[in-house]
């Protein structure tokens, strides 16, 4: 991991490999996570995971290693941590993950756990920023769980959805929307690892006829491993955004799968879209069409590119649309004028902020705070975490047909705010 990537992981995006691993493990009900490292790493991971996972404070704990443990080993720390989990009496399985420093000590963590003899299985792995950012940690944890899967008889007309995470902004809601869409088309969803799936459902994943990968950076390594182990074909399909974009996503997915039927389901969603767009037309007759001088979209690839496509093809006009990707991808986006990768193109990204003239920002709080420091004019809503200056309380997703309604609402409210500010300035 490069110095630039590590600094971004630890100090800007609040995400590292240990956090990604903890997020995946903690998403599985009945699972407890023991972070083998200093309390700093525990609080660092909890800051990110706890906002969206109400179990995190109960199921993630820490050994709290001291500097002397780096010399004499962490066995005593691990045993104390396992004793606390045993005394709580709620764990069904335990995942121990070393942070950057304890991973260098070389303790036989698996052997220590086996010698402890707890009443549950224990799974171990190294993690931390030296092992990569959040995405790498999540993917590694997913692969660790794939190792526990066994061959299953294939269930026809069934899929797993890989790459969902309930700690992403609206992640749980997006997962429910994807499941709703697929089930509405007659497709059986076996599991959504990392997002509301139980251990039993995840262990049933090898019975699926197909794996749909919605975020490559989180789900593609597991999809490849499951194809190798269980001969399950997979395809990267991204996340659906917008009314028309979601319809195209459904048609694309069913074409790939060669099973499922969408006609009846899409007819119902067409009625939803018609009513919402009717309201938008009413606003347009009062305030004019949606126009922003510039648009900045900063988010993980599936969110950034999917939302950018929906913005420009369905909802707004703009002179310039820029995407700042928070992780690498092979995907492209024809709707964007400029696409940059955070940490890899820092100088160009700095100039994007300095040259900002005003418009719409869809991002996390990191980007809006940066623009505020530069005293730039903008309107915004968040599509990625962290979100310090905007609350999300409804059960509406950002993706899919139900998400399209929320996004369209937020775009219109941003535009009305922009118009109101212009009137004040005049």
Protein model, in words:
The protein is an alpha/beta fold and 426 residues long. It folds into three domains: 3-146, Nitrogenase molybdenum iron protein domain (Rossmann fold), CATH 3.40.50.1980; 158-257, Nitrogenase molybdenum iron protein domain (Rossmann fold, 3-Layer(aba) Sandwich); 277-425, 3-Layer(aba) Sandwich (Rossmann fold). It is 49% helix and 16% strand. The protein has 18 helices and 13 strands. The chain has helices at 3-11, 17-26, 39-49, 56-59, 69-72, 75-88, 100-103, 109-116, 134-146, 171-184, 199-203, 216-230, 243-257, 263-287, 301-315, 346-354, 365-373, 400-425; strands spanning 31-36, 60-62, 93-98, 122-126, 158-162, 188-191, 210-213, 234-236, 291-299, 317-325, 338-341, 359-363, 379-382. The strands form three sheets. The protein has a five-stranded parallel β-sheet with strand order 11-10-9-12-13, sandwiched between helices. Strands 2-1-3-4 form a four-stranded parallel β-sheet, sandwiched between helices. It has a four-stranded parallel β-sheet with strand order 6-5-7-8, sandwiched between helices. α12 (216-230) links the parallel β7 and β8. The radius of gyration is 23 Å and the shape is globular. The termini are far apart.
């Amino acid at each position: 991991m490069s110095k630039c990537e590590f600094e971004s992981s630890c100090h800007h995006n609040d995400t590292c490999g240990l956090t990604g691993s903890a997020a995946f493990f903690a998403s599985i009900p009945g699972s407890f996570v023991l972070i083998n490292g200093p309390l700093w790493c525990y609080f660092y991971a909890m800051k990110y995971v706890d906002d969206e996972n109400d179990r995190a404070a109960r199921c993630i704990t820490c050994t709290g290693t001291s500097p002397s443990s780096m010399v004499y080993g962490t066995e005593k720390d691990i045993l104390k941590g396992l004793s606390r989990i045993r005394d709580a009496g709620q764990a069904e399985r335990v995942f121990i993950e070393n942070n950057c420093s304890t991973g260098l000590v070389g303790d036989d963590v698996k052997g220590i756990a086996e010698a402890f003899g707890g009443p549950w299985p224990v799974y171990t792995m190294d993690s931390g920023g030296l092992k990569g950012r959040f995405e790498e940690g999540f993917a590694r944890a997913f692969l660790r769980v794939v190792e526990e899967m066994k061959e299953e008889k294939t269930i026809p007309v069934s899929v797993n959805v890989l790459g969902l995470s309930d700690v992403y902004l609206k992640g749980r809601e997006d997962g429910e929307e994807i499941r709703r869409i697929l089930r509405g088309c007659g497709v059986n969803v076996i599991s959504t690892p990392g997002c509301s799936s139980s251990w039993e459902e995840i262990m049933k994943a090898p019975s699926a006829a197909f794996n749909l990968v919605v975020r490559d950076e989180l789900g593609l390594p597991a999809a490849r491993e499951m194809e190798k182990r269980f001969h399950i074909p997979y395809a990267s399909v991204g996340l659906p955004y917008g009314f028309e974009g979601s319809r195209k996503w459904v048609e694309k997915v069913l074409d790939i799968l060669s099973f499922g039927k969408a006609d009846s389901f899409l007819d119902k969603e067409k009625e939803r879209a018609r009513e919402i767009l009717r309201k938008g037309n009413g606003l347009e007759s009062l305030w004019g069409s949606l126009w922003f001088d510039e648009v900045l979209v900063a988010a993980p690839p599936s969110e950034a590119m999917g939302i950018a496509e929906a913005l420009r093809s369905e909802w707004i006009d703009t002179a310039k649309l820029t995407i700042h990707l928070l992780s690498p991808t092979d995907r492209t986006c024809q709707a964007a004028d400029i696409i940059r990768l955070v940490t890899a193109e820092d100088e160009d990204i700095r100039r994007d902020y300095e040259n900002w003239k005003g418009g719409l920002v869809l991002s996390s709080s990191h980007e809006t705070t940066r623009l505020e420091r530069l005293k730039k004019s903008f309107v915004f809503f968040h599509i990625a975490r962290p979100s310090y200056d905007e609350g999300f309380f409804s059960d509406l997703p950002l993706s899919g047909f139900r998400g399209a309604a929320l996004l369209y609402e937020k775009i219109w409210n941003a535009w009305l705010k922009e118009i109101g500010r212009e009137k004040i300035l005049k």
